[in-house]
Write a structure and sequence with these properties.
This protein has 133 residues and is mainly beta. 12% of the residues lie in helices and 35% in strands. It has two helices and nine strands. The structure holds zinc ion.
């Protein structure tokens, strides 16, 4: 797959701190509750840390107790893509940024009242932008 904001690996290593690199470029997961965006917060949105593509609105953020930022819907589904991944003996739906191809997190099915899915994203893959005025 070709991405609008494709970068050579050396540039990713220079631009991202080691933890963000491990998550976004190697598909690892940050430790539960370690991220700075776990708690739903003031109004704004989250963009991809790798390419600044808008990904999630804070109004869609739920589940402060989950341990990772968790959203019931994407800002624009066209900015994301998913792939089914088999590991640890289970099938998981992996979530990526369509702008740069970075790993963001996973999508889980949910039987909650507000949405059939949860987008569970690593904090280090996100940058928060406050809504103007
Ligand atoms: Zn991106």
């Amino acid at each position: 797959m070709k991405f609008k904001y494709d970068k050579p690996d050396a540039r990713w290593r220079a631009e991202l701190d080691p933890q963000a690199y491990r998550v976004m470029r190697e598909g690892r997961t940050e430790a539960r509750f370690s991220g700075q965006h776990c708690q739903p917060r003031a109004e704004g949105m989250y963009r991809c840390r790798g390419c600044h593509t808008p990904l999630f609105d804070t109004l869609a953020q739920v589940d402060a107790d989950f341990g990772w930022p968790c959203f019931v819907e994407a800002l624009d589904a066209h900015n994301l893509f998913e792939e089914t991944e088999a590991s640890y003996g289970m099938l998981r739906t992996e979530l990526f940024c369509k702008g740069c191809g970075s790993h963001l997190g996973f999508i889980y099915e949910d039987d909650g009242p507000d949405s059939p899915v949860r987008f569970c994203v690593n904090s280090v893959a996100l940058e928060f932008v406050a809504r103007p005025g």
